[in-house]
């Protein structure tokens, strides 16, 4: 057993992981930061590679992780990897489009006590389909209803992609389906992957939470600060262990760069703050129902608001 990595400020250097286990997805959403779709692959990471990452994460004291993709339930070893993570004491959230969850997967979710997350776009099936590029509205809605029926914790992120999108009506439908209103988040389009419109991927598309205690791992083994910062490759877990990578100069430098950039974001005049402690207590505990701010959904922060991390603790807010 390794000792937990502790930074000089007393915080653990890793609390939360995104495991992007596949680029394959039934949908082909117009804004997908990972550019996932039916032609996506599971990459170079094998079942043993992912298992080693999960074992390292547990040894490092990681509190929680999220399986994401693509659509993670399409990975042939998804169920085994999920079970391993839970058995190692890590809280697990599965970010799924809920288009098709097999009966055995539903039973696994219930048995292992995991949480679910999904993206939602509209109360109108045609508008929903215009974003996902598939007629997925009824399938995802049925998946949400099944999660609620089984009392599996579920949260939903409404992503604003189109002008005049029916986001308020989308939220109301989620509430009508039984999703807790407090578990419905909102995020704007991130100009990353297929989300690129009139800008290029850059730090201004991030919220700043990826500077502190989180990492994402891709199907190829590449490691990023988060799933949105895909141009910032920090290393590869096929070439070095997660434990070794955390101590690397690449990770240290990237986190310092992100802190430096985001500490000056926003202004004191903005009263619409989105600090971690407003969503989760204790604020340093990463739980699936209250993930780091740059999680793809349930995100109280987005570029342009006061949403740099509280690196210094208390009410200092980084100043």
UniProtKB/TrEMBL annotation:
Highest taxon above the source species: Bacteria
Any GO MF annotation of the entry: metal ion binding
InterPro entries (alphabetical): 4Fe4S-binding_SPASM_dom, Aldolase_TIM, Radical_SAM_PqqE_MftC-like, rSAM, rSAM_sf
PROSITE patterns from the UniProt entry: RADICAL_SAM
SUPFAM superfamilies: Radical SAM enzymes (SSF102114)
Membrane-spanning intervals of the chain: none
Gene3D superfamilies named among the record's database cross-references: Aldolase class I (3.20.20.70)
The entry's keywords: Iron, Iron-sulfur, Metal-binding, S-adenosyl-L-methionine
Radical SAM core domain mapped to chain residues: 9-226
PANTHER family in the cross-refs: RADICAL SAM DOMAIN PROTEIN (PTHR11228), TUNGSTEN-CONTAINING ALDEHYDE FERREDOXIN OXIDOREDUCTASE COFACTOR MODIFYING PROTEIN (PTHR11228:SF34)
Name assigned to this protein: Iron-sulfur cluster-binding domain-containing protein
Organism field: Laceyella tengchongensis
């Amino acid at each position: 057993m390794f000792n937990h990595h502790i930074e000089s400020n007393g915080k653990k250097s890793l609390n939360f992981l995104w495991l992007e286990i596949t680029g394959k997805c039934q949908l082909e959403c117009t804004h997908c930061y990972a550019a996932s779709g039916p032609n996506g692959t599971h990459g170079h990471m094998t079942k043993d590679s992912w298992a080693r990452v999960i074992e390292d994460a547990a040894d490092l004291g990681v509190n929680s992780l999220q399986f994401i993709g693509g659509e993670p339930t399409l990975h042939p070893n998804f169920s085994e990897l999920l079970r391993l993570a839970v058995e190692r004491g890590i809280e697990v959230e599965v970010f799924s489009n809920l288009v098709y969850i097999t009966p055995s997967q539903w039973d696994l979710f219930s048995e292992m006590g995991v949480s679910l997350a999904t993206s939602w776009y509209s109360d109108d099936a045609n508008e929903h389909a215009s974003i996902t590029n598939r007629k997925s509205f009824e399938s995802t809605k049925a998946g949400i209803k099944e999660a609620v029926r089984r009392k599996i914790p579920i949260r939903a992120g409404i992503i604003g992609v189109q002008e005049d999108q029916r986001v308020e009506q989308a939220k109301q439908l989620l509430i009508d389906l039984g999703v807790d209103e407090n578990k419905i988040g909102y995020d704007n389009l991130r100009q990353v992957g297929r989300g690129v419109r009139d800008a290029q991927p850059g730090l201004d598309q991030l919220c700043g939470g990826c500077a502190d205690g989180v990492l994402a791992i891709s199907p190829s083994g590449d490691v990023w600060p988060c799933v949105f910062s895909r141009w910032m490759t920090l290393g590869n877990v096929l070439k070095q262990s997660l434990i070794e990578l955390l101590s690397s100069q690449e990770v240290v430098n990237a986190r310092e760069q992100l802190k430096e950039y985001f500490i000056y974001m926003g202004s004191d005049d903005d009263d619409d703050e989105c600090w971690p402690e407003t969503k989760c207590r204790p604020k340093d505990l990463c739980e699936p129902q209250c993930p780091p701010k740059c999680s793809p959904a349930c995100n109280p922060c987005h570029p342009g608001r006061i949403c740099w991390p509280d690196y210094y603790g208390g009410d200092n807010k980084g100043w």
